Amino acid sequence: MESRAADPLPGPVPRQPPEPAVEVAGLVKRYGATTAVDGLTFRAERGEVTAVLGPNGAGKTSTVEICEGFRRADGGTVKVLGLAPTRPELRARVGIMPQAGGVPPATRCAEWLRLVARFYARPLDSGALLARLGLTEHARTPFRRLSGGQQQRLSLAAAVIGRPELVFLDEPTAGLDPQARHACWDLVAELRGSGVSVVLTTHHMDEAERLADHVVIIDRGRVVAEGSPASLTGAERQLRFRARPGLALEELLNALPTGSAAKESPAGHYIIEGLVGPELLATVTAWCAAEGVTADDLRIERRTLEDVFLELTGKELR
Ligand SMILES: Nc1ncnc2c1ncn2[C@@H]1O[C@H](COP(=O)(O)OP(=O)(O)OP(=O)(O)O)[C@@H](O)[C@H]1O
């Protein structure tokens, strides 16, 4: 994929009024008997990247689509750049990348971008944006003939072409190859660098950890935790290693200081928690040696966002 370092990106956004980019308070959304969003409250600050995380069916898309003005809430309030989400003047100030393309199937790539650009006063150059997202050679390809990843990239381009103040990205990197994923991350980082507020949903914890200033974890339509990635993962460290599945962890636990914990998750991946220091490291390696076990990938690290996410939302499939 082609990459251009000096493309003009949205912004800089002139003077930031005091309201947050998005303010959601006590939001409720029901579909018949299903309460998809159940009193959700959070803020996305101006100039920050806010990542909304949650298991399948947690209510992320419902929430984002209400903020985008596409769905109506059944309760609570939502303000986008200080306004009700359905206000027409938001169209020129907000960029939207929906989960499913939203592009007419026969429309060609470049044609679509030019069309979207007409809604905005100072759009970016559509050719440069196509190049930036590796779509130049598909400029004349109808949307329906693009691969899933190419369709995603076109939707991303359409979301930013108007130099919006705020961009909503619903699972922007779902189904993208690593090159495209990195191009998307670079674009989001640059948007943020130029003062644009970004609200994104994602299932990739590494994406949230890498990009987000603020993470909102939702489950069953409610916020279960929020904060910066660092504040959510905390200062606590863990010792991790890989070895054959089924090691007798109770025995290892007996050798470790009181208050330590040991678990195997998933099979063959071991996590030791507690006062992680030289003593604990020595105990674990000595125990492995006595058991004739080679501990692969032995490392000490902080909890990941994925650990926190699974602790908060459980492991059962939704
Ligand atoms: N149009 C609809 N009609 C009926 N139920 C719906 C509709 N849209 C969503 N739901 C239900 O509302 C709940 C929340 O769905 P939503 O799409 O908001 O979740 P999500 O967190 O975005 O999920 P995913 O990660 O799978 O995209 C789910 O139980 C879903 O089945």
* CATH architecture assignment of the largest domain: 3-Layer(aba) Sandwich
CATH topology of the largest domain: Rossmann fold
Overall number of domains: 2
Question: Helix- and strand-based class?
Answer: alpha/beta
Helices, by number, come to: 10
**Secondary-structure element series:** EEEHEEHHHEHEHEEHEHEEHEH
The top-level CATH class of the largest domain is Alpha Beta
Distance between the termini: 35 Å
Strand order of the largest sheet: 5-6-7-3-8-9
Main location: membrane
Subcellular location: Cell membrane
Keywords: Antibiotic resistance, ATP-binding, Nucleotide-binding, Transport
GO molecular function, one term: ATP binding
Give a structural overview.
The chain is of the alpha/beta class and 318 residues long. The protein folds into two domains: 22-232, Rossmann fold (3-Layer(aba) Sandwich), CATH 3.40.50; 235-302, Alpha-Beta Plaits (2-Layer Sandwich). It has ten helices and 13 strands. The strands form three sheets. A six-stranded mixed β-sheet has the order 5-6-7-3-8-9, with helices on both faces. The chain has a four-stranded antiparallel β-sheet with strand order 11-12-10-13, with helices on one face. Strand 11 and strand 12 form a beta hairpin. It starts with 21 loop residues before the first strand and ends in a 5-residue tail after the last helix.
